[in-house]
Design a protein that fits this description.
By secondary structure, this protein is α/β, with parallel strands linked by helices. It has two domains: about 190 residues, FAD/NAD(P)-binding domain, CATH 3.50.50; about 120 residues, FAD/NAD(P)-binding domain (3-Layer(bba) Sandwich), CATH 3.50.50.60. Helix content is about 25%, strand content about 25%. It has eight helices and 19 strands. The strands form five sheets. Strands 1, 2, 5, 6, 7, 8 and 19 form a seven-stranded mixed beta sheet that branches. The protein is elongated. The structure holds NADP nicotinamide-adenine-dinucleotide phosphate.
Amino acid sequence: MVEKVVIIGSGPAGWTAAIYAARANLQPVIYEGALTEDNRLKGTLPLGQLNLTTEVENFPGFPEGVNGPELMMKMREQAERYGTRIVTDDVVSLDLKKRPFTLKTLGGDSIEAHALIISTGASANYIGLESEEKYKNRGVSACAVCDGALPRFRNKPLIVVGGGDSAAEEGHYLTKFASAVHLVHRRDSMSKASKIMADRLLSHAKVKPVWDSVVEEVLGEEEKGVTAVRVKNVKTGQTQLIEATGVFVAIGHTPNTKFLAGQIELDAKGFIVLKDPARTTTSVEGVFAAGDVADPIYKQAITAAGTGCKAALDAERWLAEKHL
Ligand code: NAP
């Protein structure tokens, strides 16, 4: 049997695509990801990046805020309610060179599909320290916009790691809450950031750059979470302790597109290239992309959900045109 629409990935983009596709009677199947240790370590378990956060305060409709994992479960329930078939498995390889498309899963299944919606998201890069892993969700975050306003960060010194636009944006965002923002960067300038964003950050009274430095260890206590970081100057070798209740890692995101290599056009950073930026069409006819996997700019849950809706509508129209 050939499926009409298969959706790969289960963040806000995937579930929104599923809700729309199910309500359009396309009987979508969603591959939400496999529950493996490997996925846990990579941050690619089912339900996407929101499932890795605590309180979400910027998703419209929840004036009191909503718990990230709870929001994702509700999206999943909504998709299921309208008839989406959910498979808890990863798509590990696919053949997009002939139609119908063929997909292979980690569990060893083989599926055929007329249309595909790829919404596998992106995973935040972390430094890779054991102590960083230990304090994730207890002071270590890779998303200032998601977590910055939480009580533990208010009027407290915070650390931002990185020197690109993400660090500039996240650092500036955090000045709203923090008593001080220490920007720890391994170079002596924010050479990867746009000048306007770097200047805006560095001219802020609360921002204190710590140049030529890397975080060696995140320090904390079982109850309190993060309390400080030890940073090392890469030029002099000297170390110093900086007190902080939060460490925001802003060293880039990596889109989850490794399994697509050679099948579809990706940009230099691995994001799926949209054929028309206003649509969700890709270099392969019948394959649509939604959410962070094709978004190097906004990377928000609400924008992902919006493009999930667009992808389902694009797929529905394409299937109708092809009489599939
Ligand atoms: P990026 O431009 O790749 O910058 C990553 C930064 O992290 C670099 O300064 C890099 O240092 C540093 N870094 C990388 N790995 C590191 C490690 N292991 N340890 C310590 N530091 C490390 O990534 P980004 O800032 O996330 O931006 C990605 C894209 O999104 C860019 O095109 C950016 O313009 C765009 N963006 C735009 C906006 C906006 O316009 N509002 C906001 C955010 C992002 P080096 O300099 O040494 O490589």
